[in-house]
Specification:
By secondary structure, this protein is of the alpha/beta class. Helix content is about 35%, strand content about 15%. An eleven-stranded mixed sheet has the order 7-11-6-5-4-3-2-1-8-9-10. Helix 4 packs across helix 5. About 50% of the residues are buried.
């Protein structure tokens, strides 16, 4: 691998108990195996030439004091590595309690993504399993408004959150905070669990949400190869997982994707890995276009869709994306999404890190 964007879950700990959590099982499995700051520093020291950016996500990294020391270390020694964090809002509380933490974040963090799913405080707090989560998230967004830190409101793409009445309020909050919005279409690691499966966005719910956003706001970027190929006339994006981006778990294991983190995808660890020596073929993925897709007019653009969705749904990469409009259970969308080329140029660590969708209120 030459240059990569790394998503890094420094800690397995989290102060929330989200009802939809996709990583709880793996985080619980490795909870007592977390590597420490000496290993973090050594990995960056050995691989800084390959690292373009680090986004600290999964768990709540701001809970650990060593995280702030590490951010300071990277900023001081390797300023070319862009640092960002996805937080549930706890970061705001920690900064308000410790001025040194606040200074480190302001000096070293270029982007802060803030998780906020519902426009009603009680509903958001209930989904996230933490009273005050809504207020923390809004405070974090408003804090960034007056700072040179790029803020993004990130909401989870599940059925209830994608209802138009909720999106109206979420986009109002983003407009007030003068920030972008982003969503990850939810994909569970345990798709056979009916309780978790109930959160998975239905095809028509997702398309109706995109249609509403298109008609009332702006779609900045569709970083999802399936939806960018079927909903626009532009050149489709590619899935960067395992090619241009990696995920690092709290125990140091390296995986190709935020969602492909089970044992079969954890072949390397930061204690002994040199990124320049890792071949994409080692990441446990099959980058070939699925056989069923080869006759499709969108095959060259879509290439079967999002890699992790295909594997999580079907336990193989040789199946088309579950949201493919040519699957019998789906239908072909009757609208096209407009993208204004003037709005496509914006900076975000997440833009080339994972298949994600960006919007502007």
């Amino acid at each position: 691998m030459n240059h990569v964007d790394a998503g890094w879950g420094i800690v397995s700990a989290c102060n929330m108990s989200c009802k939809f959590c996709y990583s709880a099982d793996v985080r619980n499995e490795i909870r007592n195996k977390d590597v420490g700051i000496k290993d973090w520093k050594l990995f960056v020291d050995r691989n800084y030439e390959q690292l373009d950016s680090i986004n600290y996500g999964t768990g709540e990294n701001s809970l650990l004091s060593d995280w702030y020391d590490f951010v300071e270390y990277v900023a001081k020694n390797y300023p070319h590595i862009k640092q960002a964090i996805t937080t549930n809002g706890t970061l705001y509380k920690k900064m308000m309690e410790n001025s040194r933490f606040e200074k480190i974040v302001n000096d070293g963090i270029a982007e802060i993504d803030v998780s906020l799913d519902y426009c009603i405080a009680e509903k958001h707090d209930e989904l996230r399993g933490l009273k005050g989560a809504f207020d923390n998230a809004k405070n974090m967004l408003n804090y960034c408004k007056d700072k040179p830190i790029e803020a993004t409101l990130v909401f989870i793409g599940i059925n209830d959150v994608l209802k138009i009445e909720n999106l109206e309020g979420i986009f109002d909050i983003a407009a007030e905070a003068d920030c972008k919005l982003r969503t990850n279409i939810f994909r569970p690691m345990n798709i056979k669990d009916e309780r978790i499966r109930s959160f998975v966005a239905k095809y028509d719910t997702l398309l109706n949400a995109l249609k509403w956003i298109d008609e009332n706001h702006q779609i900045l970027y569709l970083g999802d190869p399936l939806f960018s190929s079927i909903l626009t006339n532009r050149e489709a994006v590619s899935d960067p997982s395992g090619l241009k981006s990696i995920r690092i778990l709290s125990n140091g294991d390296i995986t190709p994707s935020t969602y492909l983190i089970t044992k079969e995808f954890r072949q390397r660890n930061i204690k002994d890995a040199l990124l320049k020596d890792i071949d994409s073929d080692e990441m446990g993925m099959d980058f070939q276009i699925p056989e069923k897709c080869k006759a499709c007019k969108n095959a060259a653009k879509c290439r079967g869709g999002v890699m992790d969705r295909r594997y999580l749904w079907y336990q193989t990469f040789n199946e088309p994306d579950p949201y493919c409009p040519f699957r019998s259970e789906n239908y072909y969308p009757d609208f096209s999404v407009r993208i204004n080329p003037n709005n496509l140029e914006f900076n975000s660590v997440h833009k080339d890190y994972l298949p994600t969708l960006f919007f502007k209120a």
